[in-house]
Specification:
- By secondary structure, the protein is mainly alpha-helical.
- The protein has helices spanning 11-38, 44-71, 80-86, 98-125, 129-152.
- The chain is built from 5 helices and no strands.
């Protein structure tokens, strides 16, 4: 295996934090898709459409995060069992009311923003500007999404 030498002293530390972020992003993706499939009620059409927009964006994000882990020279986690060990975002229960779906997703996006701040501080300490840029962009999306979801309640 070729050693990665891109000027970051501890790429493994960043990759580990990114792996946790990836697992949570994937958990949020799956939860959002679950809600898209199972939402009911008077706001069905609006929520069904909004959830689809959100999970589509998250699908692209998980790929970008995993590719950053690989660029750091570390294998990205890619199984449900690996994600379950790393993720903090809880799976959705069954028979969740539409308003609870919105509230859960708003909370989860805020969680992702907080995780992003921790990861941003770590990447900054390690002078990993690429990861900083990736995470800053992700935080912007999570904060805007959380605001839109909160505004739907």
């Amino acid at each position: 295996m070729t050693t990665v030498n891109i000027g970051i002293d501890n790429p493994g530390i960043i990759a580990d934090a990114l792996s946790r972020y990836l697992a949570n992003s994937y958990s949020l993706y799956l939860k959002t898709q679950n809600f898209h499939w199972n939402v009911t009620g008077p706001n069905f059409q609006a929520l069904h459409t909004m959830f689809e927009e959100h999970y589509t964006e998250l699908a692209a994000a998980v790929d970008e995060i995993a590719e950053r882990i690989r660029a750091l020279g570390v294998k990205a986690p890619g199984s449900f069992s690996a994600f379950a060990k790393l993720a903090d975002i809880a799976e959705a229960g069954e028979n969740v009311a539409a308003s609870d779906m919105v509230a859960q997703l708003a909370s989860d996006h805020q969680t992702m923003s907080r995780m992003g701040r921790e990861l941003l501080a770590l990447a900054g300490k390690e002078s990993d500007e690429v990861t900083c840029g990736l995470i800053a962009a992700r935080m912007e999306i999570h904060e805007k999404t959380a605001w839109m979801l909160r505004s739907s309640l």
